[in-house]
Design brief:
alpha/beta; 19 helices; D-Maltodextrin-Binding Protein, domain 2; globular; 13% strand; 2 domains; 16 strands
Length: 463
């Protein structure tokens, strides 16, 4: 063609060259439009970090620039928020209506979210996509939580549990005075006994507990009992055995009854120990700031969930998973390509150790987590992951039952138990002032009465 063009008159030659360039540009544009139209775009709502600083968003970028680029898949996080906000957003989007957003392809959810959906069949059953080998790679308790009404609606990506966070700096000071040891915190009996001693000697609450409802359901489950009946809560018999030591410690001022998170109580020195979600590790500080604005360095360590002396080693199974919206085969397969990539054990461990969660596969725990812990710079993260590895070996993980009234009862319980016990604590101070300081039996009677009164009031509210 070059020879033919060179032989033409100048005007015709220029016209021919121009036509060649137009033809080439059209071909290139056509190829570009075609490749863009072939890209499958996948949207996701999640809770891991913030839009501008998220370990999951970092992995999404990595996927898009590697596997996604090769296979024509682009994943985009269109909402990053907290689990409660996403719970409401998912239910609102399912119902539709003016101003509502479309559900994304993938979203983070707890079982309570799926149970609250009017049409669960909007979601993929992961059993249709995962092989038996793939399902067997997960930690059984973590995968089982996502089974709802016989279908695997939620795929685990990162799990948390509930652990003790201990201000060891404060505890060591108390230990010098009392002889208390960290081993005393391995059981609930020892924890509450230590809490009362701390209150008496240090003048402050010892324990802050974010999830009092879980303390009871977990404690009963560890004794092969259940907090739940067919229609409500079981607040008799063994429940009372769990209630008494907790309630009496709270009434004596040994348990923090504030309305904020337990991490706040440790940051201000209003408690020395918290029982809270392991995922909250990022919200703890390395210093304590007291009411008078003085500060003190804090060595924060983590201990496993306490057990009852007569109970099994059981810990809460926490942490939301991922749901996949039913769309079409191409989009669903694209989303599964991303999820499989994300759940490869080494990558999953890399993700969870940045976010304060546990890996979800057996291989992740056994083969990759120990090495990853060795690279962590933060002492509190190192302590947390050593606790994780101990609990994964020695504990079973408890998943709450999928009952329709769960959320309502949990909300009522948590909303009222602190207020009732705080009121009884005020009465206790007044009654103790009236009683003889040498009459130990009088103190026991006051505690028995106030503890029983608070429980009966709570039963009336919850039931």
């Amino acid at each position: 063609m070059r020879e033919r063009i060179m032989g033409l008159p100048n005007k015709k030659r220029l016209l021919s060259i121009a036509l060649v360039f137009v033809l080439l540009f059209s071909m290139l544009s056509g190829c570009s439009n075609s490749s863009e139209s072939d890209i499958v775009s996948i949207t996701i709502w999640h809770v891991y970090g913030e839009q501008s600083d998220s370990p999951l968003n970092d992995l999404i970028d990595e996927f898009n620039s590697t596997v996604g680029k090769q296979k024509g898949i682009n994943v985009k996080a269109t909402k990053v928020s907290d689990t409660n906000t996403l719970h409401e957003a998912v239910l609102k989007s399912e119902q539709g209506g003016p101003g509502t957003e479309e559900l994304p392809d993938i979203f983070v959810a707890y079982p309570k979210t799926v149970l609250a959906m009017k049409n669960q069949d909007l979601l993929v059953d992961f059993n249709d996509y995962l092989t038996e080998e793939e399902k067997n790679s997960f930690i059984d308790d973590f995968l089982a939580e996502g089974e709802i009404n016989g279908k695997l609606r939620i795929l685990p990506i990162a799990k948390s549990t509930e652990v003790l966070f201990v201000n060891k700096t404060l505890f060591d000071k108390f230990s010098e005075k009392s002889g208390a040891t960290l081993d005393d915190l391995s059981t609930w009996e020892g924890l509450f006994s230590t809490a009362v001693k701390y209150r008496e000697q240090m003048g402050r609450p010892f324990l802050a507990d974010d999830y009092l409802f879980n303390y009871f359901q977990l404690g009963l489950a560890s004794m092969d009992e259940s907090l739940f009946t067919d229609t409500s809560l079981m607040m008799e018999d063994d429940f009372v055995k769990l209630w008494d030591p907790f309630a009496k410690s709270a009434i004596k001022g040994a348990v923090w009854m504030g309305s904020g998170y337990a991490s706040e109580a440790l940051r201000t020195g209003d408690a020395a120990v918290s029982f809270a979600s392991s995922a909250g590790v990022m919200y703890y500080s390395d210093t304590v700031t007291y009411e008078d604005n003085t500060t003190e360095d804090m060595e924060l360590i983590t201990l496993p969930c306490p057990t009852y002396e007569s109970g099994k080693k059981l810990a809460m199974n926490r942490g939301a998973g991922l749901c996949l919206l039913k769309t079409d085969e191409v989009r669903e397969e694209a989303a599964m390509t991303f999820l499989r990539w994300l759940l490869e054990p080494d990558r999953n461990v890399n993700f969870v150790t940045k976010a304060g969660y546990m890996p979800v596969t057996e291989k992740g725990f056994s083969d990759y987590l120990p090495d990853a812990v060795g690279t962590l710079e933060s002492p509190r993260y190192k302590s947390l992951y050593k606790t994780f590895m101990e609990m994964q070996q020695e504990y079973s993980f408890y998943t709450p039952p999928q009952v329709s009234f769960y959320l309502d009862k949990e909300t009522l319980f948590e909303k009222n138990v602190r207020q009732l016990l705080a009121e009884e604590a005020d009465i206790y101070i007044s009654e103790v002032d009236k009683a003889s300081s040498t009459d130990a039996s009088a103190d026991d009677k006051i505690l028995d009465t106030l503890s029983s009164d608070a429980m009966e009031k709570l039963k009336d509210i919850v039931e």
